[in-house]
Specification:
Layout: H1 21-36, H2 67-76, H3 80-91, E1 94-97, E2 105-108, H4 111-120, H5 133-136, H6 146-156, H7 162-188, E3 192-194, H8 195-212, H9 218-221, H10 226-243, H11 254-281, E4 285-286, H12 288-295, H13 297-306, H14 319-323, E5 333-334, H15 371-379, H16 383-394, H17 402-433, H18 435-449, H19 457-462, H20 464-476, E6 483-486, E7 492-493, E8 496-497, E9 502-505, H21 507-511, H22 514-517, H23 557-574, E10 575-579, E11 587-589, E12 593-595, E13 600-605, H24 609-622
Parallel strand pairs: 2-9
Antiparallel strand pairs: 1-2, 3-13, 4-5, 6-9, 7-8, 10-13, 11-12
Helix pairs in contact: 1-2, 7-8, 7-23, 8-17, 10-11, 11-12, 11-13, 11-17, 12-13, 17-20, 17-23, 18-20, 18-23, 18-24
Bound molecules: protoporphyrin IX containing FE.
The site of protoporphyrin IX containing FE (HEM) has 25 residues, from helix 17 and helix 23.
Length: 625
């Protein structure tokens, strides 16, 4: 889950989405959210002496600052990102806006200056991310900084590398097969499906299976399963206070605090049960008391009891926490067996930015892996298991920080489905709006897969047009809309004072820059990624950043792309889709950009696969694939 604020409109054909009063109000509140992002729930810090000039500010009213003009724009013309784009065109790549009671927000749209903030200066994330703590976990890598963050990335990077994900492809495929079955039934019954809803459930299955080695049939259980119920309840509760910034203080009222704690405990206990089970399967003993204290005694002890016979014992002591590579609360788990000393080589996993600049190509998030890490990858069934092994290897006495592991599970559960489900939902919407793109894509899928119903990693890598379609979908509709950093006291950027300001970057604004992308920047046109020497080949890195850039880029970029490719290829091989909604899709900005109407689609089986493949091969040859 990423903290992103603002209403977004659909960029299809440049129409301005009609806005309801409610969504406008939400938009305004989110304007406050952006502006307040730096200060969390405390009062705005006192401005320090300016270091540098002040950036231009769009016209504002005394006392109301920009809230009046923003309200008017959002009510009549579009969303916050469109407004930011308009202001960028009028005022250049640095400008500032403000709403009463919140620190100034400086929008940075210059690619080189963004690189400075993200890679060179590495400004910290906004303290407001901490509002997501109940959902993401107190030690989530989304919010940690410095050494703690680096250690967390080092432990989890290998699991998100293409080397490991290649071996995990069967997991992606088996979850997608459930989706295909569901679509078969819909085609049979001529039912209209809410495609976005189905992709949410499928991506949840994938993160549980590939991430934590746990098979949960979300597509059958729907939204009634206990894990989903716990997550959704807590997510909605926390998002309310995030959305309603003027009422944010209410989250600290005693009854809200206890409600948050209760809901958080429900989610924690569900995921802790999975964690404890996995650790026991690995022969690792669990300190029941510590685990219960972290997640709720009942569920943890029952999960431990259900795994009786695996040698659970209380063996860790709080002193081991001091030796753990992850500073935090108590180390709650210790190895039943000593870690293989032969594998005690230095970790070479990297969390630097350079290895992840292009998640669409061969480079990846994992960096160089040592031989020992490579072996662990082969021996590990899922990302969690691999990270546990790496943590054990790095830890002096094999102790593990249970809270750190639980936090990353919560983080991946949240971040690992919402964003990718959005990407899939929006891509299907674009395909329905551009039948020629859909035909060319289906032709490529048929030509590459032939009669095979399970794509191999190699086959997915060969689908160049599919890659271009996903790149383009992420360009015109980046699921994470706005990224916020905090300018430290006394700081400046490109000669502008950034002291105690929110530094806001909008991937959408970067992606719509006609100077970079050409006059058709707003159009959905995957071909731009395949044109030799075309503008898309010369884009500066920070002009395309759906997964952000630099060291704090998305750890799950490769994961998300492999997942999206698998799901799209398997769906398009078997089915044709037609948009069944009454009106065009619109953006509903929650933490990410959701398709408001859920992408309702009519599903039909494709014609005879063999005949389709032959026709597709001919079409593909004609299209120059
Ligand atoms: C299409 C899918 C996705 C998109 C567009 C996306 C986008 C992003 C962006 C823009 C950031 C930077 C946020 C910031 O700086 O404030 C980010 C960070 C992150 N993402 Fe993703 N994400 C996606 C999928 C995933 C998946 C599948 C996972 C995990 C299973 C994941 C886990 C994370 C984590 C843990 C971070 C924080 C990394 C750090 O701070 O070191 N994301 N993502």
């Amino acid at each position: 889950m990423q903290l992103a604020y603002g209403q977004q409109g659909c960029c299809m054909g440049g129409h301005a989405a009609p806005r309801s009063h409610r969504s406008t109000v939400r938009g305004i509140l989110r304007v406050h959210a952006v502006a307040g992002a730096a200060s969390g729930s405390t009062s705005p810090p006192q401005p320090s002496r300016p270091k540098g000039k002040q950036p231009p500010r769009p016209p504002e009213l005394p006392g109301l600052m920009h809230s009046a003009s923003m309200t008017a724009y959002l009510a009549t013309q579009g969303d916050l990102e469109r407004l930011l784009l308009q202001w960028r065109q009028q005022h250049g790549p640095f400008f500032e806006f403000q709403v009463p009671g919140s620190p100034p927000v400086m929008v940075v749209a210059d690619p080189e200056a963004i690189r400075e903030v993200y890679e060179v200066l590495q400004y910290h994330k906004s303290p407001r991310y901490k509002d997501l703590l109940p959902v993401l976990g107190s030690q989530s890598m989304v919010m940690s900084e410095g050494h703690t963050w680096k250690a967390q990335r080092d432990a989890f990077n290998p699991g998100f590398s293409s080397s490991f994900l290649k071996t995990a492809l069967p997991g992606f495929i088996s979850c997608t097969e459930h989706l295909v079955e569901r679509l078969e039934a819909a085609a049979e019954q001529r039912e209209v499906v809410q495609l976005h809803h189905l992709t949410v459930l499928t991506t949840l299955e994938v993160i549980c299976k590939v991430g934590f080695g746990e098979d949960i049939d979300f597509l059958s259980a729907g939204r009634s399963g206990p894990l989903w119920t716990a997550f959704e309840g807590l997510g909605r509760h926390v998002a309310w206070f995030l959305d309603n910034v003027p009422l944010n203080w209410m989250k600290d009222l005693p009854w809200n605090v206890s409600k948050t704690q209760r809901m958080q405990q429900q989610l924690d206990s569900q995921l802790m049960a999975i964690l404890v089970k996995r650790l026991q399967e690995m022969g690792i003993s669990v300190d029941r008391q510590a685990a219960a204290a972290l997640a709720g005694a009942d569920v943890v002890s029952s999960s431990v009891a259900s795994s009786a016979g695996t040698g659970a014992s209380s063996s860790s002591s709080s002193s081991s926490a001091a030796k753990c590579p992850f500073p935090g609360v108590a180390a709650a788990v210790s190895a039943a067996t000593a870690p293989d000393t032969a594998q005690r080589t230095t970790l070479t996993t990297s969390s630097s930015s350079s290895d992840a600049e292009c998640p669409f190509g061969d480079t990846d998030t994992g960096g160089e892996a040592s031989a020992a890490t490579e072996q662990m990858m082969l021996d590990s069934k899922d990302i969690l298991m691999l990270a546990v092994k790496l943590c054990q290897k790095e830890s002096v006495d094999g102790s593990l920080d249970l809270e750190m592991l639980l936090s990353q599970m919560k983080t991946f559960f949240a971040a690992g489905h919402d964003t990718t489900a959005g990407l899939l939902g929006w891509t299907m919407w674009y395909l329905c709006q551009h039948p020629q793109v859909e035909r060319r894509l289906a032709a490529e899928v048929a030509a590459v897969l032939g009669s095979s119903s399970q794509p191999s990693y190699q086959q997915l890598s060969e689908m160049r047009y599919l890659n271009a379609v996903l790149k383009e979908s992420l360009r015109v509709r980046p699921p994470v809309g706005l990224l916020a950093r905090w300018g430290p006291e006394g700081s400046s950027l490109a000669g502008y004072d950034t002291s105690s300001k929110v530094l806001l970057v909008s991937p959408y604004v970067q992606h719509m820059d006609t100077q970079v992308w050409g006059p058709d920047a707003a159009d959905f046109r995957p071909e731009r990624w395949l044109e030799e020497g075309g503008p898309a080949q010369r884009v500066p890195p920070y002009s395309y950043m759906p997964f952000s850039r630099g060291p704090r880029n998305c750890i799950g970029a490769q994961f998300a792309l492999l997942e999206a490719k698998t799901i799209l290829a398997m769906m398009l091989q078997k089915f044709e889709f037609e948009y069944a909604g009454d009106k065009p899709e619109e953006v509903l900005m929650s933490v990410t950009a959701h398709p408001k109407f859920g992408v309702p689609l009519r599903v039909r089986r494709r014609a005879q696969p063999a005949a389709a493949a032959a026709a597709a091969a001919a079409a593909a040859a004609g299209a120059g694939l």
